[in-house]
Structures are given as structure tokens and as C-alpha cells.
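(Deposited chain)
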Amino acid sequence: MRETTSTCCYCGVGCGVIIEHDGVQITGVRGDPQHPANFGRLCSKGATLHLTASASVTRQTRLLSPMRRLQRGGPPQPVSWDDALTHTADELARLHRAHGPESIGVYISGQLLTEDYYVFNKLVKGLLGSNQIDTNSRLCMSSAVAGYKATLGADAPPCAYDDLQHAQTVFITGSNMAWAHPVLMRRLEDARRANPTQKWIVADPRRTETAESADLHLPLMPGSDVALYHGLLHLLLWEGLVDTGFIAQHTEGFDALRDRVRDHTPRETARLTGLAEDDIVTAARWFGSHTPTLSLYCQGLNQSSSGTAKNAALINLHLATGQIGKPGAGPFSLTGQPNAMGGREVGGMANLLSGHRDLGDPTHRAEVARLWGVPEVPAKPGLTAVEMFEAAADGQVKALWIACTNPAQSMPDQATVRRALERAELVIVQEAFATTATCAFADVLLPATTWGEKDGTVTNSERRISRVRPAVPAPGEARHDWLIARDVAQQLAARLMPERAALFDYPTAESIWLEHRESTRGRDLDITGLSYEMLETRGPQQWPLPEGGSAGRVRLYEDGHFATANGRARFADVAFTPLAEPRDARYPFSLNTGRLRDQWHGMSRTGTLGRLYGHEGWPGVDMHPQDLQRLRLNEGDLVRVRSRRGEVLLPVRRSDSVKPTQAFIAMHWGEEVLSGRDSAGRALAGVNAVTLPSFCPQSRQPELKHAAVAIDKVHLPWRLTAMAWLPAERALAVREELKSTLSRFDFASLLPFGREGDAADASARLGLLLRAAAAESPGDDALAPIRAHLGLGEPGVLAYQDARRGQQRALRIARDESGAERLQGFWVAGDVSGEAWLRSLLEADQTLPGPGRQLLAPGALARTPARTSVQVCTCFNVSETAIRAELGRCQGTADERLVGLQRALKCGTECGSCLPKLRLLVQQTPIAEGLGVTTMPT
């Protein structure tokens, strides 16, 4: 066995990993104890990376050869790389000549490596002659970029992860760190354990696990962030907690902002935000007097039609109090994707150029033109993400080249996105996974490498550059993203501008890196002192690290000099504006979207593992109990969530985490796992059918976090639940085969379940769970193929059918040598009572309580227990019921009971993602009577 150090491919924390492999197949992964981002820790997603790279998953889900449709609407056919590249170049050149460079739109991803990004950026701006390139980082980080540049002068997070341990007050706003950045949450927990006086303030409309851990939760109304920050600044001024010396020496524009916040009294701020006045006062005093103060923020600020204003208003608080450029202090944007920072560094967006240069600056354009050896870089900004797809839907953009991202799941207003993908004359999808929704629209499919196979660099949230190293060869015919872009660029140059073919003479990823490095010379992110060799010998490094330097700079602006023309930071005089789409009588609910703990984006990778659905096992919409009562809804009832753009059908879930008139749906639920028909009979497209395309005027980042929706109960009396273990080498392929059948139902969800493990793990297994509903049974012609795929139509399967009542049941049972029966699969249609009990028997691999045939008797399932327990710990498959039972036996203080729980059940001892929930359960669960204590210790 061999080991290769690399970097995790999920969030912007940038954790180091050690990949275990045999040179051909990845067999394991663990955290790199030497990496300064995580020191060996991994979250539930990172800890299962090796399982997503197994040979079985690769065979069933990966795109392994180039493919193209020989005619529009026909099935994609495998072709050679020569054929795919020639056809792609021919078509792009044809459209370029016929309609001009702006007829081609390139949409790339924050999950690409810096080297990949660089080649794509140069291809569009240096060869095609437009700036028509944007990235899904526009959907997650562009407001943070605009906010930093508007106030501090540069897109440069000033803080470092070490600041977590130095802070006295931590202001977490617009971020559910416990789920979105779990490893940073562990570091923050360590900091508070070492310094019990550290205070946490969490501003979030929902009571998330992060908010549950806070000393002060501010459940502000959606969209009222700027009003809160202005109200805090009003109090900081009133109570003399601003740093007048810092303001005078290092900033400008304060007078206008001071006048702006004069009317944001505690009473007015409470009215605008829905918060208690006393809580606003407490937050201001902690922010200004319990210093140093560190702010941590993410999509709750960024994904907004006023995202730049929210970011800038928060930074204003740090400038007013001088809480920047010091250990434990500063405004720290937590990056969403693994290399959103690297993409911005190379200018891979419609309004940026390499080395943090601005497209609108003629000097900057001339510098890049000289570096690339081209006469000029076009001055006109390209269309940003939402604008690009709107233009394609209107017929202006003729070609869409999409790399390493899934807009048919992740973009807002899916009706427009899908119209764009259908209308474009050419859709090129460059992708590792063949199972994404976007692949279904592709005219050309180009297979790309992914984690464990790629070679290059990424930059994390603290400006730290890490190496990504390949452990195994690319499977099938997959190629590196930069290599595909290089080869297309060379063929395009031969057709359009032969003199520019040499622009893409890159033999290795390192050769691209060296050119990128030179583009940073003299810039704020100068890395001319950094090399692949230094990253190999000294490990990951923060920028800037100019030539002659030995290490990168930990934090920025320590000298009070900012990246503006005069060196002074600028206060942003921004107004509080209401939501782009406030709720009203027709759409009375505020819908919020966000992440799940164990899933990533559109789930093309994490969604291949059944174990990662254990914590959140089915799509749903969270609503407050009062709203359920008012609408006469029970948990599990199907509801139609409608906006002005589209709708989605989901089961409803009771949740105290949301306030009345608010609702929450996870961002991950797209067409890959959800299906059905809307009220007009059209196919549904997941949660982003309802989200809002309105964007921030400065950052062009769309309002993905909020939409006004109506929620109505849907009467679909015929129900189906089917669940079965399948051979691991076939389960994911069966899922893909079943997807085409799901549109026969008004609602359907199809998810893997199970406990994947190493080859030696005898308990490892994988299955599929299908839930569906319709006004009436779709008939046996539709149902028989599904039963066959799940192995529930085979000889020997116990079956019962009552055509008059529309009831169907089927049980696949295995008998061991002793004659004991165990459930291997079941089908319950019509009335699905008891399906939760059957699921618990199946997942636990328990012996049936009696002969299986008895479960087919009328009414048998209705007499069984109603539901299974929720999984809390993914690593060791520990349920909430088991945890509460064990906690009843644990005595002592809260910390002692947690330790006893971990010792007994192991939960919280591996990745730690479940620790916030475990601490909450410790608080909620009394010690059982008879053990000496019956109430919780204080």
C-alpha cells in the first residue's frame, strides 16, 4: 500500500488528506496531521472520500469516454477524443465566425484547480476575444469579493484560522458553520474550551446547530442583516465603543455612515429585524468591548440581492472599532467551494483579470495582454452566471461550455436555465460524473478527472495554497480539465488565429502555475516566492509570499495600510433595502435554503453513498408547528411549494428551528433525487425551480437564500414505498435506470441507503429507497419494471394484492441456516402504514418477529411501531434513540456525560460533525431515575 498527500475537494476549509492506495485503486483516506488547516481532522464528507472513489462507484457513475449526440434529441454515442475535440472546435469556430465571440458562453466552477481555471480564462479572454466566462463562484462568493474591494480595496480575506483561538467575541452571521464548515467548528470549539470567556453571537433566521451552540442567538428576519449591522454601529457610537483614533488615521467616509445609522436606534432596529432590543444591546457591547472580535460569515450574506451591502455593512463594524489586522480580529469570509479563491486569483470571472486585476482598468488590461502576448484584452465585461443563461434562453448566446458544475440543479429559476440548455445550438459538458442533471442536455460530453486523480493547486479561505496530487491514474479515458481546455484552445487557434496557438503550449500543470505566478508579481497576492517545490518541502503557504520570502503572511492590514489608492479603508455608506421578493398574501412564507451536514452541492459525489443519507434520509420542507396546525398538516404530508417561477412537491417536516411564516429546504434536492409533475403536468426540477434570479447590482450574485412562496397541501391518496438491498456493483446503475420511470408519478424521490465500507467489511451493503405518490395507481405496466429493478418481482417473493382497494405488498426474504427470516426488500403500495417499521427491520438486518407471510395480512402493518429513530452519528451509525438511552445511564457534569457517551457508543469520536447535536442531547436528556439524579446538572 502507498500514501499520497493531497487536499479535500469539498468546502473552502481546504483540509489536507492522506490518500491510501495501491497505485491503481484508492482504498482509504484520513486527515493529514501536518496540514495547518485541519491538523488531521475531517468531516463526515471528507472522511468518506475514498468510498466515493471506489471501483464500483466509478463504474456506475463516472463519465469514462467522450460522447456526443449525432443528432439533436438522439442518445449520446461514445466517440474518440480526436472526434470529440475536432467536433467541439469546429462548432465553436463556426459560431464564433457567424455570431461573434460573445455568442459563446463558458461557465466553470470553484471546484476546478487554479491551473484549470487559468487555461479557461486565457482561452476566452486571450483567444476567443470576449469576457464571456463566469463561474459558479458567482453563486457563492462574488458578494464577499465586492464587499472586500469596496471597503478594504482588494479581494483579500484579512484573517487566518489561527484567529479563532485568539478571539474573545465571535460573531457568526449568515453561516451554519456546524454543518457547512464542520472542521472549523471543531477548531472554534477547541478555542472556547481553552478560553471559556469567549462569547459566540450567531445571527441566523433559523435556530441551527450553530445557533444552538451560541451564547446569544439573534433570529433576525430574513434579509434584515444591514439593519442589524447599522443598529449595532449606532449603539457602538452611542456607548463610546468605536476607535476614533483608528478611524481618523486609517479610514475615510465615516461621517456619511455615521449620519446614515443615526436613525437606527435599538427600537427601530428591533422593528426592522424582529429582534429583542436587549439582545441587540448585548450584541453591540460584546462586539465593541469584549474584544478582539472576529466575524465569520458565508452564504447568508452573499446569496442576496443586497449581498455587497450586507458584506460591506459588516466590515464597517470592524473598521469603526479597529477590529482588523490584529490576532483574533477581523471580517472573515468563509469560502463555500474548495477553490473559489483560486478562481478569483486568476481572474476566472466575467469582470476580473489575472492577479486580482480589474477588467475596467485599461492599465490592468494592458498588463495582462503583455503577459499573454496578445494585442489586447477586450474591455467589455462578459455576462455573469444568471445573465449568461438568460441570454442563452433568449437565443443571444449560441453555445454553452459547462465544466465541473451542474447548472440544471444549482442555478436559480430552473425554468429559464432549462430553456437555455434546450435552445443553445451547442452544449458542451465537461464532467467527471455522468449522472448530473446537466449531462442530459449535452451535445458533447467530455470526461474529466476528479479528486484523487488531479494535479495542481487550490487556495482555501485563509489564502492558503495547497497542493492537489494524483494518487491513481484517471479511469477510462478521462483527462485533466486544463488538458481538455488546452487541446480545444489549440484546435480553435488553428481555425481562428493560428498565430496564437503557442499561447497554450503547456506540457504540465506546473507550467501553467509558473505563468500564473508571474501574473501576480507586484500585486496584493504576489506569490513569486512560491513554487511547487516549496509546497512539497514546506507545506501549504498563505499569500502574499513575494520573491525572497520564506513564508506567507498570516494576516493582512496589521500596519493599518489598506489596498486602496491612498492606503485608507473606506466606510461603505449603504442603505438598508427590503427583500427583493417579500412575502405577501399570495405567497405568505419566506423560504430559506441551505446545506445539509453530510451532503455537498448537487450530490453528484456524496449522493453515491447511502451512509451519507442517514442523517437526513429524505427530501422535505421544514415548517414551524404553528403553521402545520394552521394549515392542518401532519408530518409527512405532501405539500406544493409554489413561487412566481415554479414549484416543487415535498413532504413536510415539523421543525422548531424555523419561525412561523418561514420555511426551509436544503439546496441539494434537485432532479437527481426528486421527480414528479407540477400542477400543469410539467416535470419538476427540484428546489431551484422556485428560487429567485434577482441579483445584487454590484456583485451580480443571485438571491438564492430567499424566495416568497405559498405552501399548500396536496391530496395524492395513492402512495408507494419500496426499499431493497441490491448488489453494490449494481445499485447506483439501477438508480440511473429507474430515474426515467419516476415522471409517471406526481411525486417521487429515489435515494441510496446503506453502510458502504472497505472490501473486507462484511456488513457493507447498499440499497435503494423509493417513495412515490399519485392521485391514483399508475397501473401495473408502470410499476412492474420498478419491481423488477428492485428484485421485488422475482419468483419466491411473497406478494399480496387487493385490486379493489388498490393495495399491494411484496416482501423479499432470506432465510439463514437456522431458518430465521430476514427482510431483504419490501414494496408497500396504496396504504403505506407500517413502512417505517419495515424500513427499520431492513436497515438493521433484524430477524423478523414471526413468519414473513404474516406481514402480508390485512392490517398487520398498521399495528406495528410508526417510525424509526433519526441517525445522529454517520461514522458509527448511532441513532438518537440509542444516544438518549445511553445518556440516561451517564452521570456527572455535562462534559462528563458526553465523555461517557462517546466511550460507550463512539459517536462524536471520528469526524466530530455530530458533536453539536450530541451536546444538545446531553442538555435535553435527564439522567434516568434510580441512578441518583433525575434532572440535568447545571
Remarks:
- Confidence is low (pLDDT under 50) at residues 932-938.
